[in-house]
Amino acid sequence: MVPQGLLALPAAAGMRKISHLFLVLCSVDSSSFCHGFLRPRMEGMGRAGQSCLFCLPLKIFCLLVQVIGHSNFGSIRATTCVYKGKWIYEVLISSQGLMQIGWCTLSCRFNQEEGVGDTPDSYAYDGNRVRKWNVTTTNYGKSWAAGDIVSCLIDLDEGTIAFCLNGISLGTAFDNITRGAGMAYFPAISLSFKESVAFNFGSRPLRYPLAAGRGGLKGKEPVLRPSLEPCVSLGLSLQEGKLVEKDTSVWQLQGEPTVLITLAHIFNYFAPLMCKVYLVEDVLMTFLLSILERGGAVEAHPLIQQLLDLMWLLMEEYEVHECLKQLLMSLLRAYRFSPIIPDLGLQIHYLRLTIAVLKHEKSRKYLLSNVLFDVLRSVVFFYIKSPLRVEEAGLQELIPTTWWPNRFTKEGKESKEVKEESAEERLRRRAYERGCQRLKKRIEVVEGLQVQILKLLLNNKDRGGGEASRYIFLNKFRKFLQENASNRGNLTVLCPPEYMVCFLHRLIAALRFFWDGHKAKTPATLSSEEAYIPPQLFYNGKVDYFDLQRLGGLLSHLKKTLKDDLAAKANVLIDPAELQAVTMDDLDEDEESAMSAAQVSRQQAQPLARKSLPGWLSSPTLGRANRFLSTAAVSLMNPRRPLGTLEKIKVRTLTVEQRTEEDIEGSHGNEGLLLGRPPEEPEQPITENSLLEVLDGIVMMYNLSVHQQLGKMVGVSDDVNEYAMALKDTEEKISRCPKRVSISGLPASSSDSSSIHEKREKMQDIYWLLRVCIRTIEHGDRTGSLFAFMPEFYLSVAMNSYSALKNYFSPVNSMEELPGYEETLMRLAAILAKHFADSRIVGTDIRDSLMQALASYVCYPHSLRAVERIPEEQRISMMKNLLAPYEQRPWAQTNWILVRLWRGCGFGYRYTRLPHLLKTKPEDASLPSLQKPCPSTLLQRHMADLLRSDRDLAPSFLNSVLNQLNWAFSEFIGMIQEIQQAAERLERNFVDSRQLKVCATCFDLSVSLLRVLEMTVTLAPEIFLDWNRPSSELLLRRLAQLLNQVLNRVTAERNLFDRVVNLRLPGLESVDHYPILVAVTGILVRLLISPGQNSTSSNAERATAVLLADPCFQLRSIQYLLGHAEPSALAAAPPTTEKRHFSLHTYTDYISTEELAKVDKMLSHLSEESKQAAATTLPTSEEDLCPICYAHPISAIFRPCSHKSCKACINQHLMNNKDCFFCKATITGVDDFTKPSSS
């Protein structure tokens, strides 16, 4: 055999270096000499480096030549050339981008601008642009797609080059090509960055072989097949004393020694041939497929099992291994790249043969141990690829018409008014539904075969000759998950997400089959509808979670800090040797590695409970992996101290390969995976332990890539919907035209295949997974501090699966129709309400995700009602957590939740979109921020009760809100100043988009904080107006100060805010007068006009006095709200100026007449009060003003230093500092100060 050669391009003067490409050439059998081609000798590889542009890395892929573009337009050429005769090679198109495939000569010189077909004596076909290339270009052929196979043919006798696409000739592309002495042609390709193909020069059978007379670059034709079938269809006739043909169904392996001896001689010659890749795919696989073609179930064809028995009996073990490996790889390749036909017959055929092979126990265990998940990805067998072209798959005949529902029923989409369905639409819908049902039945056949494969792999009864298949599968499946979890950035290693989606659904079906089967045999266990993962799996170390983050931090940290809880609740002792092991987080902590057993005992004797935050929350940096405490085995030891009648169990680490069936299922008092059951966990058995680990892997798999893929799939569905709606709208417009235009061809082109992957069964799988996660979280929560051991992805999957059910499925399949929908929604709401501020959860990302999920939950009526149905104690606790001070925590989402609970009740706050944005199309109408208002009066009442009853909660919360409002609005003003300056510069007429986004965010935060203040003033006005409370006066003065600052900045004529709003910069669309002014107006109206049911007139007078006393107050700002322009501004404006002034009266669709009347009343009230205040206020000398603010008279004196200021300044200062402004002495008290009267 000639060794594999390296493809290379000869050097050329001035050529630029081409980036690396991955490829491999197949072996060529030297025993078969064919005239007409030349190939490199072994020593030629050494010289190739001298003439090459670069050295190429090798990558074996099923003995095919895989080429991946790593430059702009790289070119590469084979080392084998042809100079006479007829030749063919095939190219599998892995991506459908820019590529030119064909032939070239040794004299061709390529660069990153000129590739195959751009130079003389090079010829190429480009299916991306549907053209052929030879210096010039013309139209040729058909467009290719990923998965197509291009056959490249050259006839050096006639001087022609042609191409075929999927076995269909595209015609002669070039004729009269140059031939003669010194002319030889090499296979070649030029391709763009990240495009990929795979070449077959004959190492495997051609997918579309042509008539005799044209050869591939391979060895001799097989001679094995004619002799294969007779060797297993012969029997020994005792009467005639010779071998005769015998029915294979009654053929037996035992009892006929002469036949066995004869077969042994035959296999002695056949065995080496059955290890060859070409012969396995072209002969053995074809022969086995022919057996199944006779029809019937797989079990009706025992010949395949008998043949496998013979192979294991008469062939060397390494020969059987290689043959089975190549057979399964050939089946995988055939299943993956076979064309889609209307009945999916090819895919069904290959799956049936795979099942037949896997039914053989010894073969199944070998393949599961050494091939599946190792050499190839078995999940490919569970993927049903989409057809490349509608016409090739027969979809046009199967679904002759298309239909799309007239409205969306899923949350987030506004349902349009449904018109009565016409007779034509009814016929179209019924035809579409019948076609979908026919297609669904075909797909269900394939899915059923895929589930059968998994049932074979999950068989735990085949213990003959070693470990059962299920336990081999568990270890391989866990490694498969680890590989996809640890290489999330390496796309070449990851399993494609579309494969994972199909694998998940099939694995759920197989798991529930075994789960319910065990329930039928053992009625005391749970059914699959009640499935969950018990919490002990997360801390007993039996299941490997690799470097995935736990809710409480790193596993090593949790085992050290919660070892006492593990001993007390779960009777589990952590091996001291493991606690002393050097981990990634304490490599420099010598004292940890030197810790003695006595120190460990002393630490265990110390209680963990503390008054403040638990010590175990001081987690090291999140995200760092601890690979030392991944899995564990259990050994029963004498307990260190008695605890009732139970023994303490010490755990130690153990690799996955060392796990046995006993470590999983348990025996003789060993509970296996269920070791360490906490007292809160019921004693009722759940199911087989091994099925629990499979279920845990399914949840992890959804988190790794399935959810992201569902999001991509719904994007396709939305595109189809938009096209269908546009098409319907076009039909209606054309129907109104005087001259009818026919568009009968358009509907067929909008064939919607979304129902294939969005059918109800798939939705039910995701719903079942959601309920599994909810039950698992609920059981884990009951364990107290041990809840910190739960991996974060359980909470992530619970949130993401609900989001998928709500947004990622067809509008025909509504989540509301699922069984137990209301209860599930309420239980998920309880989880979000409890755990978004759970101190046991320390991961920043997962806490943010919980907060965002809760914020989205309260935006939709159904989910908000679910929050209101959770127990009252949990509702109050949730609201108390939401009202915690905003400092030192992410507060934006918390504030957003409170705003959503208020939206619909505030002043002019009943809009879905801002008035000035109504004419623009939203990016996504399903966004939570664009939902109709749905306030919750129940949760508002809880908030009011908490603020009234807890005298410490209200001041801390409101002071934090006022601080954040001050910061957000100040940042916003500073940014718009920079934006205005940048816009006015001649040398720079653009602004950084990121700066615009941050500016808009600060504005939105300011508006939302004002709305929360409006909500507080409305629900509990006494917090500001009842000055018997120690902090009320200060809160009211701070609120008045901020409101005046906002009004002055926004309402001043020709001010900075006006200029920036009038620029209408992209990114600042939300910045406008209306949202911020109506929020401020709402607060003022509540304070001055309608302070509350239990408030008195003195409260309104007190609020008025504080507002007028603030030096920043300007009456013109209040007048601006009603469109009263400043007189000086009107006088200065030229007569021709037509400036439209802001006025609340122009927003009658958003502001009610009653609200406008209150604003008019407020303006009249403030006008009268300001006049009276101006008349009664005596002039104040400068020395009597507060030396801090110079706005208020001195009204307070400090003890013991006797320095003075106004009450507002000292009260605000004492919130954060106890030192005097002037002398830095500690202030022990503040007394009222009244200036003594002069003599």
Automatic annotation (TrEMBL):
Residues 1186-1224 form the RING-type domain. It is found in: Cytoplasm. Keywords: Cytoplasm, Metal-binding, Methylation, Phosphoprotein, Transferase, Ubl conjugation, Ubl conjugation pathway, Zinc, Zinc-finger. It comes from the Eukaryota. Residues 6-206 form the B30.2/SPRY domain. It catalyses: S-ubiquitinyl-[E2 ubiquitin-conjugating enzyme]-L-cysteine + [acceptor protein]-L-lysine = [E2 ubiquitin-conjugating enzyme]-L-cysteine + N(6)-ubiquitinyl-[acceptor protein]-L-lysine. One of its GO terms (molecular function) is ubiquitin protein ligase activity. Its EC number is 2.3.2.27. GO terms for cellular component: cytoplasm. Residues 660-684 are annotated as: Disordered. InterPro entries: B30.2/SPRY, B30.2/SPRY_sf, ConA-like_dom_sf, RNF123/RKP/RSPRY1, SPRY_dom, SPRY_RNF123, TPR_RNF123/RKP, Znf_RING. Pfam families: SPRY (PF00622), TPR_RNF123 (PF25576), zf-C3HC4_3 (PF13920). Pathway: Protein modification; protein ubiquitination. Signal peptide: none annotated. Component of the KPC complex composed of RNF123/KPC1 and UBAC1/KPC2. Interacts with UBAC1 and CDKN1B via its N-terminal domain. Interacts with RIGI (via N-terminus) and IFIH1 (via N-terminus). This is E3 ubiquitin-protein ligase RNF123. It comes from Apteryx owenii (Little spotted kiwi). The lineage of its organism: Eukaryota, Metazoa, Chordata, Craniata, Vertebrata.
